[in-house]
Write a structure and sequence with these properties.
By secondary structure, the chain is an all-alpha fold. The chain is 64% helix and 0% strand.
Length: 134
Amino acid sequence: MEQAIDTLSIGAFAETAGVNVETIRFYQRKGLLPEPEKPYGSIRRYGKADVARVRFVKSAQRLGFSLDEVAGLLALDDGAHCSQARQLAEQKLADVRAKLADLHRIESVLVTLVDDCCASRARVSCPLIAALQA
């Protein structure tokens, strides 16, 4: 029988959210997820809002946001800070574009080095190794 989503144990919560129990505990230590009350003689229970919050954190991480940045986004989640959230997203977009430019530069250099390796079979010294030693 399926467990009600508002009364999940930490194990069921982790499974429903698609993470492991240690991830839940880590998010709690980082302040990304509140730790629910523990009734006397019972276990903590989690609900839909907790599952949604963990899924939000994981989605933001997939977009490249660090946990500190995710905490900043969560702090803006009251509907009145859309422009601030947009600024954070614009900064992340600029960071991603800069990383892409770096990767394209690296790709270009590696293509040249690989081509040099293939073109100079008569040399004793490998052009790739020689370029990296320079």
